[in-house]
# Entry
Amino acid sequence: MITRLVLLQCLFFFMGLFGVKGQTTSQMVGFLKLHLQTGPNFIGFALLPTMEVQSPFHVSPGDRKQIWLQGTGVSLADGQFSGGLLPTHCIEIISSGSSQGFTSVIVATQAAGNSLTLAQEVPPSVPDGAILRVWKLWCLADVFGASNTAGLTSAETPAQADLILLPDPAGVVKKYFYSSGGAQGIGWRLAEGGNASQANVPVLLTHGMAILAKSAKTVLLVGQVKQGSTQLMLRSGHNYVANLCPVNYSGTGSSVQGRTLANSGLATGLTGGTVSDLADLVLLWNGTGYDQFYYSTGGLAGAGWRKIGAGTQNQDNMALPDGAYVILRRGPPITLTLNQGDF
# Structure
């Protein structure tokens, strides 16, 4: 089980005008500090590295994984957003409608026709002429430095090093560390063994991670704010979800724009119930264990967000953690729309 709270501070230092291929748009840029405490820490990135393209697009009538960018001035190169076996970029649909916030990693880029091939099909409700953005994904080397400039504890064995617990695209949690030498050589490695570099392992847009830290330290991250809603695929079982809102509802630098159980959009997609055993759970780490929340649809607890063990007390204003949290999905996989606010 991944456990722990992580402190995040996000302070915006300027508004920039960025000329991106296809359209000129205004992006808010900022930095956040990941304050790691000794032990397990939940991490989620409320900033993204770079928005590369904003453009209208058309969808192939025969294969909805195939799209063509139509923006003025768009000129893609073969492999531009898909350089190898690991994904490097994703698309986000920003047009209004039920599919706003849909994301998919890019698996191929073709110069001919400015074409992108996606890992998931574009939803049927998305019409030709809808608008997307292409975002670069974080990877381990981006976040912590190709040579571990972030200063995580390195060692020749994973047992002696800080461990990064990160779900892969299938939801399987894998463990990474910075090897200082020995049998696995120097660099980012899988804890399970082998000397293959893991520097380019991506952090998917909605995924949270955990860091098991040997000592307290701070990691600085600079990036751009993703605005609007974001669609998330929840698998059955435990899902580790990043809080994409760039400000806190409570604590240091608090803002009413921060995310709570009530304004996050979680109640719309999650399964509720008259008792917690029938409902999906949102698990928030409190320092020693999980506080467990569910959306009550009535019964003795009444209707609204409730905390297991707290009776009928309303939990609407419970702040989502700055980093990441866990959703226990009891039913089949669903698509959930998260609202991280507009900035």
